[in-house]
Predict the 3D structure of the following.
Amino acid sequence: LIAKESAARGAMGTRLRDLIRGVRGCKTAAEERALIAKESAALRAAFKDLNDPNRYRNVVKLMFVHMLGYPTHFGQMECIKLVSANAYPEKRVGYLGLMVLLDERQEVLMLVTNSMKNDLSNKNPFVVGLALCSLGDICTAEMGRDLVGEVERLLGSANPYVRKKAALCAIRVVRKVPELADTFLSAAPALLKATQQHGVLLAGLSLALALCAASPAALERYRREVPALIRVMKSLVHSDYSAEHEIAGLTDPFVQVKLLRLMRVVGAGDAEASDQMSDILAQVASNTDGSKNAGNAVLYECVQTIMGVESIGGLRVLAVNILGRFLRNRDNNIRYVALNTLAKVVAVDTQAVQRHRAIIVECVRDNDISIRRRALELVYSLVNEGNITTLTTELLEYLRVADLEFKGDLTQRICQLVANFAPERRWHLDTLITVLVQAGTYVKPETVNSFVALVGNSPELHGYAARALYRAVCDEAHTPALVTAAAWCVGEYGELVVSGEGRAEGEPPLAASAADVVGQVSALLGDPHISNATRQVVLMALMKLATRLPSEEARVAQVLGRYRSSMLLEVQQRACEFDRLAARNRMHVPVLEPMPPLDEAALKARREAAATGEERAAPAGG
């Protein structure tokens, strides 16, 4: 007993500041644990004294121990005892302890419901505020159902302090028990009339947003309040200077943002409500100063509202112009927000976004990786038949200097855009050849196959494509995709490379003999960077060149003879097949004849069917 009394006196005698000083003075984690263990033992002993006048001080120390990450479950009942006390200091610490030491999953909260109900009817507004704060922080579904009547009654309190707390508490109740949203519909709209108490107004707007999200009836009810919302917004936009509410030259931007957000919710899908708020939205967009961060926040929310309601085209153009100004801002956060919003707007009003295409393309070269990524996504969305050549040129220039992590996705996007919007086949071929040269490592086999089909189905470009790819493999570093495409085209149309037949307008001259062509294709076999599949394509190209360029048949046979004993089965098979054909003088068999035009639709259908079959087979295989 003497030991317990001594421990209790020790706990009472150690002030919070002394405990903090002791923790800061610990040089190791072990010293800190020892100190906390000693203090926790003293607090346990002190909590057993029912007549201790310093109970709330012990709970304050317990909260500090909790903040350090040590267990404090032994003090939860002490918080509930403090809540039921009559003195305000004890209640204040008790409710604070509830919010810090407990959460909604603790069953012990059931014991505090009755005390909260009594405090919500207390004559002291500060006691009522404590109960509302605590309920708004740790309210469970059961507590919400039990106390919803008191919260709804306090929404009509004459005290602005209590009304604000009640509105914030009601938000928590609605989120926990959405079916109770209709309970607040009679009292909540009246909070929008508290134009002189901005704290109450802000809480009322937040409650309105929560109610509209939870109840269709609440949404219809607040649509009838659109004129009131417009009046409040006008009073803020055109009000005189107020030191109490002004921030960076704007009258209470926090309330303005909430008002605009509520307008967006009630105006979505309602043409009448949207028409009523068009004028005030135009005033906010035109009169708000965007030189400060507060103004940018209001402008951004205004843009979101304009795009979210049934607004007219002129208003949408004004909103997009605001985003265009954001793109010129030096702050990367503002530019990122603008790009992110434009990506959503482009589906609604593409023409308005197209006016800012130049600045969007500039963002592709920004130093910030997140801005580059967003800008690229937006550029992809802006591409159409009218600007495909311009934007593809910009993307190809960026592809040359892009980071490695971007090149794969950028390459595939360029190929997709070109396939969808190419104005003519020659431009299509030139662009894909440029991609093969600059980023052939990242080009997928499907893209190479589509390129081959494009060449095969364009008889007027056979020679042009073969000569262009021949130049590429002569001048550029070899990548698997480039070698595959070049070997196929030169193998099929090698005689056109030598003769120069079908030379296109503006095509540079090419002087290449049959020996040069065979020599260059043979050199590709020795490239260590190409895959076995690509090497097989090169071997087949050499076999076909033996029929297209008969003067080089012996040389081709000599080159392929080296691979008859290759360790690679497929390569060895190709070489042996050629050797057998040459021995029987059957070099003009159908397999070596020119490829017929490919049916692109059938090819695409086969690929989609194969991909679908793989997807279906994957779960069974797994």
In short: The two ends are 68 Å apart (CA to CA). Residues 600-621 form the longest helix (22 residues). Residues 1-13, 614-622 have pLDDT under 50 and may be disordered. The first strand starts at residue 246 and ends at 247.
